[in-house]
């Protein structure tokens, strides 16, 4: 189980997993895949039949879906301190999967210009954008991080989804969101991950030229 492989594209949700891997601090091999053909080859489809990134392969274990990868890595490398303490588990799992469910659903529909009819809002995981905004604010009131005083893996995923959401205009920007975004954006691991993705993107462009 020592070999850790990371499949990504620097212009994908793989940037979240890159950040997670840099926070953990373990060695890993990166496989950068271009959109289109590279993600649909037989070799990669054997890793993820969906033909999408990101994915990780850890020994024989394959994990896809960003929230699942973050959760897996936090639990597999507990020495990084990114998993929840016993008292943090309720908030940790609640907000990890709120970000993976209602929040992602909201911003995806918003980006596609899909407006949920009022009579159908009860069918959607997020209901209304106003409810999501108020709920997100509740998660961050009077605490620096989602679980309280300590940065955890959930903050990597939650903050990435939150920043995407308010940058896209899917929810209202509020001071508590911006303060949280500034706080997590100052982490050295995120800066390393961003630099690595920028270098990978530059190489992809050079190779395609």
Automatic annotation (TrEMBL):
Keywords: Transferase. Residues 1-81 form the GST N-terminal domain. InterPro entries: Glutathione-S-Trfase_C-like, Glutathione-S-Trfase_C_sf, Glutathione_S-Trfase, Glutathione_S-Trfase_N, Thioredoxin-like_sf. One of its GO terms (molecular function) is transferase activity. Residues 85-204 form the GST C-terminal domain. Pfam families: GST_N_2 (PF13409). PROSITE patterns: GST_CTER, GST_NTER. It comes from the Bacteria. This is Glutathione S-transferase family protein. It comes from Martelella lutilitoris.
């Amino acid at each position: 189980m020592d070999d850790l492989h990371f499949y990504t594209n620097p212009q994908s949700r793989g940037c979240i997993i890159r950040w997670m891997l840099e926070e953990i601090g373990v060695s890993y091999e990166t496989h950068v895949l271009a959109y289109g053909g590279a993600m649909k080859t037989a070799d990669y489809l054997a890793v993820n039949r969906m033909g999408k990134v990101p994915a990780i392969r850890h020994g024989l274990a394959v994990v896809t879906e960003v929230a699942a990868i973050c959760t897996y890595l936090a639990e597999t490398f507990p020495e990084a301190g990114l998993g929840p303490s016993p008292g943090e588990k309720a908030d940790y799992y609640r907000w990890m999967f709120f970000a993976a469910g209602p929040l992602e659903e909201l911003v995806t529909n918003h980006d596609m210009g899909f407006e949920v009819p009022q009579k159908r809002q009860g069918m959607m995981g997020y209901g209304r954008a106003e409810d999501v905004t108020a709920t997100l604010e509740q998660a961050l009131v009077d605490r620096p991080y989602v679980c309280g005083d300590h940065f955890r893996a959930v903050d990597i995923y939650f903050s990435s989804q939150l920043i995407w959401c308010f940058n896209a205009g899917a929810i209202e920007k509020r001071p508590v969101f911006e303060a949280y975004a500034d706080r997590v954006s100052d982490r050295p691991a995120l800066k390393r991950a961003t630099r690595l993705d920028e270098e990978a993107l530059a190489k992809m462009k050079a190779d395609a030229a």
